[in-house]
Amino acid sequence: MRISVIGTGYLGATHAACMAELGFEVLGLDVDQAKIDCLSRGELPFHEPGLPELLLKHIASGRLRFTTSYEEVGAWADVHFIGVGTPQKAGDNAADLTYVDAATLSLARHITKDSLIVGKSTVPVGTARRLQQLVIKNKNDGVDVGFAWNPEFLREGFAVKDTLTPDRLVVGVDNPDAEAVLREVYATALAANTPFISTDFETAELVKVAANAFLATKISFINAFSEVTETVGGDIRTLADAIGHDTRIGRRFLNAGVGFGGGCLPKDIRALQARVSELGLERTMRFLSEVDEINLRRRDRVVFLAEDMLGELAGKKIAVLGVAFKPDSDDVRDSPALDVAARLFSAGADVNVFDPEANTNAAKRFPRLNYVNSTVDAARDADLVILLTEWAEFKALAPTDLDDLVRGKRFIDGRNVLDMGVWQDAGWDITALGHRHVGQK
Ligand SMILES: NC(=O)c1ccc[n+]([C@@H]2O[C@H](COP(=O)([O-])OP(=O)(O)OC[C@H]3O[C@@H](n4cnc5c(N)ncnc54)[C@H](O)[C@@H]3O)[C@@H](O)[C@H]2O)c1
Ligand SMILES: O=c1ccn([C@@H]2O[C@H](COP(=O)(O)OP(=O)(O)O[C@H]3O[C@H](CO)[C@@H](O)[C@H](O)[C@H]3O)[C@@H](O)[C@H]2O)c(=O)[nH]1
So where's the catalytic machinery, residue-wise (predicted)? Predict the structure, then answer.
């Protein structure tokens, strides 16, 4: 079976390489010539553990190629996965469907053999049915083109593992043939007893946004309790551990900190609200505005704490450790860390930034921050150090790593990953989100 993947960004490049790993012949397509050139050379244009190895392996095996030609893809593949972006529309909460519409239309017009189009992008409910009609109206006569929806649940940083061994597979289909093709594509996972949920288009689309809305809600839930413990005292990590032992609740996604960001959770909860409002259900997802607001208030809290600890921000040197939206990623889309760094700079602070992988992407968005290549360079002469992305090397920091470098022993742990007692004993004024700031011991 020959597979094409349309859109070779974080999702598409991963899907393409993993499909090749499963034994299929794969052709990845993107409209971005530079990206296609880069991938064709075996270079991954973003950071994702394990993916560069797969890319190189299957370019060498001949099973993985890249192109910008819809004509080539349409004449070649039996199954076409669509993984183009569905970002938030500028000035609006809704999803921008321009790319997914354009990709579907291009496919429909260029497919010259019987095949199946499978949407993977995250879309508002109702999109799949609309796109199916677009295909029916625009496909070539005499060619049988099926349509299905198969949302993707991979996490950046674990993209290869999540694609090869997913928690579950969800397919939205309207006929048994489409389901049979998808069962063949995912035969390896099915043989490993991965749950396979075959349903209609609407349920498949909704499962995806429901999962992200639930995860976002879980994070804002614990972060709301952070606002309480910051006021009355208490330990947010212990609280999360204690409720997490209840298997009905579970400990995962209860890490309090500067909140969620990235190319998915923030835009997906906004797009869900926009879509249900469009359907006349304005009140239904209103709680997600609160989830969003609680999340954004975490960033205000870090800026407030910095100001509180330093008296004023103007002229102060601040080391920001981490700007990626999460560790093991170079993605800075809607990154809480980068937002905080930029706000500290706007308030007059001199901001040194170090992220093991995301400096380059961050510099494209905020070139005026001072990007450096190590924690040591970031912390030298700093009046305050702020940890905002929990990379392993930051979690392993000890006071002795920074004691002789900084101008002021002040630390904000924006991800709740350090042992504050150890730092306090070493004379640091340290606080973490979800803890009352008590100052120096
Ligand atoms: N990033 C993730 O971890 C992840 C996980 C699950 C689902 N998703 C969803 O997958 C989709 C893609 O996300 P992403 O993070 O990979 O985005 P991305 O921006 O990294 O990649 C999108 C790619 O699509 C290409 N593209 C745009 N228009 C095109 C067209 N007409 N034809 C061919 N290519 C085109 C772009 O050039 C880009 O390379 C989104 O809907 C997202 O919500 C992402
Ligand atoms: O306890 C937690 C867990 C996560 N986060 C933050 O939440 C954001 C999102 O994290 P994560 O969900 O791991 O990253 P993504 O790669 O964006 O993955 C989410 O978004 C993808 C795109 O839709 C989905 O496929 C995944 O299932 C879903 O987890 C990051 O900023 C994290 O720092 C927290 O603040 N606390």
Answer: 264
